[in-house]
Input
Amino acid sequence: MATERTFSILKPDATRRNLTGAVNAVIEEAGLRIVGQRRIRMSQTQAEKFYEVHKERPFFGELVSFMTSGPVVVQVLEGENAVAKYREVMGATNPAQAAEGTIRKKFAESVGENTVHGSDSADNAKIEIAQFFQDSDIVG
Ligand code: CMP
Output
C-alpha cells in the first residue's frame, strides 16, 4: 500500500473548545503524520468553494456560516492509505453513529458541528490540499 496524503480541517467547534492538541493526538496515535498545518479564518468565498458539491443541500447555508464562524486548522496528513485511515479515525459524519475511540465519538457535538473534515477520495484530497496549501508549505 502506498504512502498518500489527505486533507483535514479541525472545524470551529474544535478550536473554540481548545481541542487542537487533543484531536492532533488522536491523529498521530493512529500513525498519521501532520506534514502541513495552518490556523486560518476561512472566508465566505473559500467556504462556498470548498463545499460547492453540497450547494443544493438544505444545510448548505448553515454549513458555510458555521465554517466561517471561527478559526479552523487546515492540515495535510500523510501515511499508508491516509484517506481511508483518516476517515476511520474521524468516525461517522453523525457523531451519534460514530464508533468508540473515533474523533467524532470523543468530541463532536452534532452532525453539523462535527469537529473534523477529511477528504473522501485521493483525487479530492489533491484538489482540497491545493485550495489551502502551496507545495512548499508541506514538509514530509
Ligand atoms: P464534512 O465532512 O465537512 O462535509 C460536509 C459537511 O456537511 C459534513 O462534514 C457535515 O458537517 C455537514 N452536514 C452533513 N449533514 C448535515 C446536516 N443535516 N445538517 C448540517 N450539516 C450537515
